[in-house]
Structures are given as structure tokens and as C-alpha cells.
Design brief:
The chain is α+β, with helices and mostly antiparallel strands. The protein has one domain (3-219): B-lactam Antibiotic, Isopenicillin N Synthase, Chain (Jelly Rolls, Sandwich). The protein is 16% helix and 25% strand. It contains 3 helices and 16 strands. The strands form 5 sheets. The chain has a 6-stranded antiparallel beta sheet. Strand 10 and strand 11 form a beta hairpin. The N and C termini lie far apart (38 Å). The structure holds N-oxalylglycine (OGA) and nickel (II) ion. Residues 99, 101, 115, 120, 127, 129, 135, 176, 178, 188, 190 line the site of N-oxalylglycine.
């Protein structure tokens, strides 16, 4: 965790640099995506010494967003007709991460993306963005990329793949991307809510029945996440694993 600038999305390098840190330090993930391998890897933060307030400011903000995340998870549970704390147990050893994104101006913005099209793998993402703009969501009805206009003092909430599966598609995770421009740099701060690595993600039992059978096979969150991360720093020949790979037809 810390600074890096060579992340790939959909096998193309993004036009961005980032600083990542965990809200729970240390956090734990499987060492490899292989199902037979039960080795666990410890992740921890690396903070720079300067600027001196950086660490505390980041942690204070992250703690507040974490509270908001739990509030949203509770409201989502209620909206599905479930007890408000129904999802909380999945986050006991969460691997939630905060990212500071910097998208530098790009001389050829028509040739690059700040962040390629993707869906967030976790439960929820809470994004603060500045006034530059660039985040777009794909509208399903006609495949048009719709800008998510920056609104002062507002946060953008993305539903991730995990909630799509838990809710058996009552909620859907949206595909999104970030375009860049040639004049202004852009900053954004997503907080990604990831469940504990050992959680088996599957449609919640209370929501499935004969008329609404489960649309997904259970999968281990940590293994799925680590398999997805395999393509983060190198180009693969094929599209990496997606929740659609667990879909029951
Ligand atoms: C992400 C993301 C949006 C943004 O990092 O997954 O979607 O506005 N970021 O930077
Ligand atoms: Ni995203």
C-alpha cells in the first residue's frame, strides 16, 4: 500500500497515479487466487513522513466515510426487507481501502482513459470528486456514457458487484470509467468497502425462493478479489475474472 502509478484496467494502462491505504491496518487477503492454496498474506500501510499532517487527515476522513458506509449498508438491508444489521457480519475483518487518485492533464485525451471501464468488485464505493469532471457511467438502455456531474459537497455512491450478488440483482453494479482532458488535472478520493476475505458471497437466503432462484454460485470474496487484481499491473491476453463467471444461466 502507498504510491503507485502503473495500474491497468481491462489490460490497458490508466492515465493516473494513486496513493492507497487500508482502513484496517493490517488487513488480510489470500496469497494467491489458487483454491488449493490457503496461505494468507498480510497487507499494511506505508505512510510518507511529509507532509506531517497527511496521515492523520487521511485517517480522520476515512473513519467518517467508514461510518457512512455502514449507514448505507444498513439502509440497503432495510430496503431489501432485511434487518438493518444483516450485512454487518461480513465486514468484521474488512479489507476496505481508501485511494487518492490524481489524473494529470493528458496531451491526447482521445487516446487515453484516466481509468478504463470497470465495475467495482466490493460492496460499495463512496467517491469524493473535485469540480473538474470526467467520471462517466454507462447507461444500459443505449450504452451511452453519461457524465456524473460534480456537485459541490456531494459524494458519489457506487453499488459494487458484491451487493449485486447479495441482493440477487435487486441492486446492480454500474459500469463506469474516467475520461481525462488536456487542460486540468483531476483529483478524486474513492473509499472501497470490501468484505472480509473469507466471506462466501452468494444471494442472501432470505431473498431467494422457487420463484426467484439464486442467480449466482457462491464464491470466496478474497480469492475473487485476488484473481481480479492479477491484471492490475500487467496486460493479460484475456479479460480477467468477473462476477458474470459465477452467474447461473
Ligand atoms: C475507481 C473509480 C472514480 C473516480 O477508482 O474505481 O471508479 O472518479 N474512481 O476517480
Ligand atoms: Ni470504480
Amino acid at each position: 500500500m502507498g504510491y503507485h502509478e502503473s495500474e491497468h484496467t481491462k489490460n490497458v494502462r490508466d492515465w493516473k497515479e494513486v496513493f492507497d491505504f487500508l482502513i484496517k491496518d493490517p488487513s488480510f487477503l489470500p496469497a494467491s487466487p489458487e483454491t488449493e492454496d490457503d496461505e494468507i498474506r498480510t497487507l499494511s500501510n506505508q505512510w510518507p513522513e511529509t507532509p506531517p499532517q497527511f496521515r492523520e487527515v487521511c485517517q480522520t476522513y476515512a473513519r467518517e466515510v467508514e461510518k457512512l458506509g455502514y449507514k448505507l449498508l444498513e439502509l440497503i438491508s432495510l430496503s431489501l426487507g432485511l434487518p438493518s444489521n444483516r450485512l454487518n457480519g461480513y465486514f468484521e475483518d474488512h479489507t476496505t481501502m481508501m485511494r487518492l487518485n490524481h489524473y494529470p492533464p493528458c496531451p491526447c485525451p482521445e487516446l487515453a482513459l484516466g481509468l478504463g471501464r470497470h465495475k467495482d468488485a466490493g460492496a460499495l464505493t463512496i467517491v469524493a470528486q473535485d469540480d473538474v469532471g470526467g467520471l462517466q457511467v454507462r447507461r444500459k438502455s443505449d450504452d451511452v456514457w453519461v457524465p456524473v456531474k460534480p456537485t459541490p459537497n456531494a459524494l458519489v455512491i457506487n453499488v459494487g458487484d458484491t451487493i449485486q450478488v447479495w441482493s440477487n440483482e435487486a441492486y446492480e453494479s454500474m459500469e463506469h470509467r474516467v475520461v481525462v482532458n488536456s487542460e486540468r488535472e483531476r483529483f478524486s478520493i474513492p473509499v472501497f468497502f470490501f468484505p472480509s476475505h473469507y466471506v462466501m458471497v452468494k444471494p442472501l437466503e432470505e431473498l431467494v425462493n422457487e420463484g426467484n432462484p439464486p442467480k449466482y454460485k457462491p464464491y470466496n470474496f478474497g480469492k475473487f478479489f485476488v484473481a481480479r487484481n492479477r491484471s492490475d499491473y500487467k496486460k493479460l491476453e484475456v479479460q480477467n475474472i468477473q462476477i458474470s463467471d459465477f452467474k447461473i444461466i
